[in-house]
């Protein structure tokens, strides 16, 4: 592993980059990091059973996409909002006929809000489709697969391919300098104290458990596992 101002970097085969991601995830946990930002990175980091051009590409496109708008977060489609807008507009006209100007104004305002929300939701969905297509078909040909949130910035790139396998470069930077120093110390401890890192592997236990009539065991490995 190389450490620089831009982060912690490793160059090697797929197993090397998977191990690098696991070490950093575990180091973050050891220094007390938790919360959504941590779990977003833990989900994105490459896993031993994944492929960079399929799984990592899909996860990168998903985390890079436009966030949901107000309407989407409320579970309303553009059509739902337009229907509500029409209902509010009808209410507004009814209130005008009843000489209830204030209520008419409120219904009219709500109608406009729903129209705007419908347009926003439709625009976001259309943009996501364009983003996804551009990212999958263009960006991954020119740039590394990347991840970025308030906790870490990371990128992974395939830099060589030969008969004996692929070579990747995986770099992760902890955005807070103080926290980065703490993580660096833990990673140094791993280098000096751990003889062999047990890389997490995907375990297919459901089929065996079903055949034997027992519950599948709890998941092992990952940032919460022990390493010797």
Task: Give the topology.
Blueprint: E1 2-4, E2 7-12, H1 14-30, H2 36-44, H3 52-63, H4 70-73, H5 78-97, H6 101-142, E3 145-148, E4 152-162, E5 165-174, H7 177-193, H8 206-212
Antiparallel strand pairs: 1-2, 2-5, 3-4, 4-5
Helix pairs in contact: 1-7, 3-6, 5-6
Protein architecture, described:
- With 228 residues, the protein is α+β, with helices and mostly antiparallel strands.
- The protein has a domain at 1-66 and 129-218.
- It has eight helices and five strands.
- It has helices at 14-30, 36-44, 52-63, 70-73, 78-97, 101-142, 177-193, 206-212; strands at 2-4, 7-12, 145-148, 152-162, 165-174.
- It has a five-stranded antiparallel sheet with strand order 1-2-5-4-3.
- Helix 3 (52-63) packs antiparallel against helix 6 and helix 5 (78-97) runs antiparallel to helix 6 (101-142).
- The model is unreliable at 207-212 and 217-221 (pLDDT under 50).
- Residues 43-109, 199-228 are annotated as: Disordered.
- Residues 43-58, 88-109 have a biased composition (Basic and acidic residues).
- Pfam families: DUF5828.
């Amino acid at each position: 592993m190389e450490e620089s101002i831009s982060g912690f970097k490793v160059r090697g085969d797929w197993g090397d980059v998977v191990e690098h991601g696991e070490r950093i995830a575990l180091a973050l946990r050891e220094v007390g990091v938790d919360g959504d930002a941590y779990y977003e990175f833990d989900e994105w980091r490459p896993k031993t059973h994944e492929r960079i051009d399929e799984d990592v590409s899909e996860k990168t496109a998903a985390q890079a996409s436009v966030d949901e708008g107000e309407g989407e977060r409320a579970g309303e489609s553009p059509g739902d909002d337009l229907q509500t807008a029409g209902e509010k507009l009808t209410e507004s006209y009814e209130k005008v006929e009843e000489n209830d100007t204030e209520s008419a104004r409120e219904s009219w305002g709500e109608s406009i809000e729903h129209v705007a929300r419908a347009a926003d939701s439709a625009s976001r969905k259309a943009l996501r489709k364009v983003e996804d297509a551009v990212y999958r078909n263009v960006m991954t040909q020119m740039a590394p697969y990347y991840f970025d949130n308030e906790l870490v910035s990371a990128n992974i790139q395939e830099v060589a391919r030969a008969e004996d396998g692929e070579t990747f470069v995986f770099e992760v930077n902890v955005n807070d300098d103080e926290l980065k120093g703490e993580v660096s110390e833990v990673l140094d401890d791993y280098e000096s104290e751990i003889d062999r890192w047990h890389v997490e592997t995907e375990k297919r236990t459901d089929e065996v458990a079903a055949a034997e009539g027992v519950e599948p065991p709890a998941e092992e490995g990952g940032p919460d596992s022990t390493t010797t």
